[in-house]
């Protein structure tokens, strides 16, 4: 692949402008108001795969948003790589905190990205990382460097639970058959500290509703005599953690995979500065489960966070009201062996038990996913490791991520193949936040590294 | 006043249609978007006072919304009644819970209002009750029945703390001089159980802001390792009450006026059905400070309620975010001898002390007011009592209200006169709630009762 670097160099402006066009499309899957844009984005991905060299591309209908499928089969006896990614993005709000409009990409230099970074919703998660694979395919097909078969499965509901994906997989096992699944939807430690994600946390996402009186009440006439749904909700949520920040849901920790001292010592070797961690997000101190480090709290330990809460008068000025209802969105991150469906039930039972007689509580399980761990002795991991070594000049560190890609465990269960998570983003890329961005260096480095994965994976399979 | 009833009967359709016109004006003082309507409403009140027989009317500029002043001085040696009311209204939201648009008044019969009730924001609080005084004046002037002097002071900031009113009073002590202040901005027990409010709770209204990280974070990557402002806010709010629902702010109860057993026994005589109280607002059980009855909890005891809370993602679907900020609006109802400024400071100190190192807390005192009690042996109370007796055929019951009219204590302090609270609304009128309404019977009964107050008050002063 001696011409890989020069090919990227010659075409990098086009690679960037193509991605920028994709980022202009507000494919927010969580908000029905954007459904038209989500569908247009699927079409755009189809066209891109076609141009990149797939010899069969299809926008597949599902019960929800379509899944874009593409393939290039050069020899059925050779291994097949299935690339997964998503073309939908998180909602941009709070929009007022963006320095530039979320769907009008701009390139700006930052301390960590001296070559510039593209600022836009989805720049890193996942359009930028997904599109690296499209451009890597383009290189391999244009230069006769594709050593094996490749399939693409790019979905549009990852940010809302990938509900249609399961349906799609169950109905297309044959079409999706593969030897390894490749995903770039995670991050690495730093541009000079490449890492491969070997573990993902599971997720249980629920929405809760607490109802008190049948209408909003005047807090003067009823205050003190009636259960206020907001106060009650606050009290119930406060009751979910104990003083050591352990989650009080009975049975929550029963199946948690406790790491050995050796494993935790190994983890602790990853370069980490608590000071720069705190200053990067502007906090005076970290906060979490007693007895675990910050890295452990955000990777090998389960968590419970309120992602949204609302109730009563939230407009300007003052309104003295006891609202009829209060709501919260709550998510739990799970670790290996925790079953999200079981956890959702345990949560519901416990949460309801916290309610006093004066209110009614409804818990709606939203979606979820199972935790996942990749063995580092698998062929896929070995191939990825060698690819990073080739392009970064050093071995990548295996790393557990705190995030969740629920469908990875689904892939293993239904397609019987392992997933390799080659992420090129940085924690500081602000995915899911205002001013999300993706380094141009990272984008091009990904395009450079991916073809080597194909090369080594094919060789290791011979 | 033998022609009073017939005058009301002859003119009642006009009395109702005039009020309906006033109710069509969305004079929401809390929301700047309505400022134009608030100003128009002030003008409409000026015109109404003029037509009703005032010989001097003025829309007085203030640092905030104007105050409408009107007067009819027939003889400086006679007593002067100062009527206070407000032309501003609470925000209508949640608008979706209204059966008819809040500013398109409709008349509907209800179980408690067989003669019909006007449904609109402000119908009872306070346009309907304020306008009774305008129409009572019309009767007295048209029929040479005004026995004393009268002044009107109708403000536009009652629902947001009456900030300009204090400024206005301090600058117009002479103009506002009076012998008694008359207000209809409270309720009575039932149409067949007239009552006069002799006590009001004070108020301290604050807004709190909890800031964690400097930006919204991905709950997968940071969850468990960083203080989540929503979880922290919930925990802090939960920490404001103990297990007996007593408020934990140190010093909060120090100045609370504890009633004697006799006083509580006297209070308990007021007709009250816990079952109908619960069914009226659709709750299975009441909830409040241990050791006190529902009536005591909502009148003679101080309270703390969250009136609004918001933070994180509150749109449709799911967003896995740890927000940078979470907010709440919190109000405390105070009882005699509690000083709202002191309570606000005690709250702020305690609330800030509940915050862990991982977050920053800001407490903004919003507004407040002092509690108030009217002595039932005052001339004003006696005159009001006789007036009710005349038109309702029975003596009214003196009653402590849980609500707050902060300016009542201000009046006593600055104008040196007592306030009489002749309220004709019912608790079920849903003030501050969707579907606020005011009974037509109550509206007309108020217009009938008020002239007798002037009569008896003048006689008692001779």
Automatic annotation (TrEMBL), chains A, B:
Ranges of residues in domain Peptidase M20 dimerisation: 199-358
| Keyword tags | Hydrolase, Metal-binding, Protease
Query: What is a biological process (GO) this protein takes part in?
Result: proteolysis
Question: InterPro entries given for it?
Answer: Bact_exopeptidase_dim_dom (IPR036264), Cyt/Met_Dipeptidase (IPR051458), Peptidase_M20 (IPR002933), Peptidase_M20_dimer (IPR011650)
Q: Which Pfam families does the annotation name?
A: M20_dimer, Peptidase_M20
Instruction: Report the domain of life of the source organism.
Output: Bacteria
- Which GO terms fall under molecular function for this chain's record? metal ion binding; peptidase activity
This protein is called what? Beta-ala-his dipeptidase
Where does this protein come from, organism-wise?
Answer: Galbibacter marinus
């Amino acid at each position: 692949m001696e011409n890989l670097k020069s090919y990227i160099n010659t075409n990098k402006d086009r690679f960037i402008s193509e991605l920028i066009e994709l980022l202009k499309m507000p494919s927010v899957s969580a908000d029905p108001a954007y459904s038209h844009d989500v569908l247009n984005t699927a079409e755009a991905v189809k066209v891109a795969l076609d141009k990149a060299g797939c010899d069969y591309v299809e926008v597949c209908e599902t019960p929800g948003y379509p899944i874009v499928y593409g393939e290039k089969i050069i020899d059925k006896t050779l291994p097949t790589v299935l690339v997964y990614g998503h073309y939908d993005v998180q909602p941009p709000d709070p929009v007022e905190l963006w320095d530039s409009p979320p769907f009008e990409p701009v390139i700006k230099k930052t301390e960590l990205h001296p070559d510039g970074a593209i600022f836009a919703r989805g720049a890193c998660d996942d359009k930028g990382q997904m599109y690296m694979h499209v451009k890597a395919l383009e290189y391999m097909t244009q230069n006769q460097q594709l050593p094996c078969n490749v399939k693409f499965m790019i979905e549009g509901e990852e940010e809302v639970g990938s509900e249609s994906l399961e349906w799609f997989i169950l109905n297309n096992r044959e079409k999706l058959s593969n030897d390894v699944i490749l995903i770039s939807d995670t991050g690495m430690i730093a541009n000079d500290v490449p890492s491969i994600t070997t573990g993902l946390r599971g997720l249980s996402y629920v929405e809760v509703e607490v109802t008190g009186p049948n209408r909003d009440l005047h807090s003067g006439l009823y205050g003190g005599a009636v259960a206020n749904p907001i106060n009650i909700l606050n009290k119930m949520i406060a009751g979910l953690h104990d003083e050591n920040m352990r989650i009080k849901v009975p049975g929550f920790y029963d199946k948690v995979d406790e790491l050995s001292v050796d494993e935790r010592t190994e983890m602790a070797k990853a370069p980490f500065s608590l000071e720069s961690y705190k200053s990067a997000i502007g906090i005076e101190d970290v906060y979490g489960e007693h007895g675990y480090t910050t890295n452990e709290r955000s990777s090998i330990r389960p968590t419970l966070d309120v992602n949204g809460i609302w109730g009563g008068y939230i407009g300007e000025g003052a309104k003295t009201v006891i609202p009829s209802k209060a709501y919260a969105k709550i998510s739990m991150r799970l670790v290996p062996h925790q079953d999200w469906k079981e956890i959702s039930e345990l949560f519901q039972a416990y949460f309801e038990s916290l309610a006093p007689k004066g209110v009614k509580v409804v818990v709606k399980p939203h979606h979820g996913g199972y935790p996942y761990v990749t063995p580092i002795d698998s062929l896929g991991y070995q191939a990825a490791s060698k690819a990073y070594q080739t392009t970064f000049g050093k071995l990548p560190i295996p790393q557990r991520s705190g995030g969740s890609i629920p469908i990875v465990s689904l892939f293993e269960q239904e397609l019987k193949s392992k997933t390799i998570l080659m992420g090129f983003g940085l924690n500081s890329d602000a995915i899911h936040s205002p001013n999300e961005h993706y380094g141009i260096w990272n984008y091009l480095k990904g395009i450079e590294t991916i073809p080597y994965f194909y090369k080594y994976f094919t060789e290791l399979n011979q």
